[in-house]
Specification:
Length: 198
């Protein structure tokens, strides 16, 4: 599994779910599989490249801090941490007629160990692809595949991040409280679903 763009991966793998974007090429949602140890360095490099391509505002909205680059702890959390059980991640790949497939968005849900019915959620969509329904489609699928027993999302959102608040409100009854430093604490009660088999 690779993170950004690679030759020779066009076409649907069995776990791909085709989705229709507003105003875009064919696309699929694909699970982020745990990465073999000997491929971790490549995955970190791909992640670094993807992060560097984001605008400063998108970087800030995603991580709520200004970072020139991702650190080792984030590599471990965002790559090694994906186990498909308590930390589930999906990405969206667009499949143009010509050229290489490319990842346009990534969404993850991570169970809080100390409160196993709650999970954090995070989504990143490449800047050029904002506003085409990618986050909505990723989250729809992610909620079906969320860790078993998770009934509530709990996360922090920058107060100026209207898109993120709108995207979260779509998922269920939402409670927003103001925390310090221009950040909202957001809780979303999730409607019950049977998580799909992974
Ligand atoms: C937040 C983010 C993931 C949304 O992705 P997206 O693919 O553009 O979102 P969608 O097109 O699915 O739209 C989701 C909702 O946001 C609204 N929206 C999108 N862009 C918006 C904007 N610039 N301002 C206000 N609302 C906006 C859409 O209208 C939609 O709301 P609706 O369902 O009520 O119509 C994307 O903007 C992003 O990557 N931001 C930086 C990282 C981030 O903030 N992540 C979330 C916190 S972890």
């Amino acid at each position: 599994m690779t993170f950004i763009e690679r030759d020779g991966h066009a076409g649907c793998e069995p776990t791909d779910k085709p989705v229709e974007l507003r105003d875009g090429p064919p696309a699929v949602v694909r699970p982020f599989e745990p990465i073999p140890v000997d491929e971790l360095a490549d995955a970190y490099a791909d992640l670094d490249e993807a992060y560097a391509e984001l605008s400063p505002q998108t970087q800030f909205h995603r991580f709520l801090s200004v970072m020139p680059r991702l650190n080792v702890a984030l590599h471990r959390r965002l790559v090694d941490g994906v186990d498909g059980v308590d930390h589930v991640a999906l990405f969206m790949v667009v499949l143009p007629d010509r050229g290489r497939e490319s990842i346009v968005g990534l969404a993850r849900v991570v169970r809080y160990p100390e409160q196993p019915q709650d999970a954090d959620v995070a989504v990143t969509v490449r800047d050029a692809w904002h506003g085409r329904g990618i986050a909505t489609l990723l989250l729809e699928e992610l909620m079906l595949r969320r860790p078993a027993g998770v009934t509530r999302l709990r996360t922090q959102v920058s107060a100026d991040n209207a898109a993120s608040l709108a995207m979260l409100r779509r998922l269920g009854p939402t409670h927003v409280t103001k925390a310090s430093g221009g950040v909202y604490e957001v809780e979303v009660d999730l409607p019950p679903v049977s998580p799909v088999a992974r």
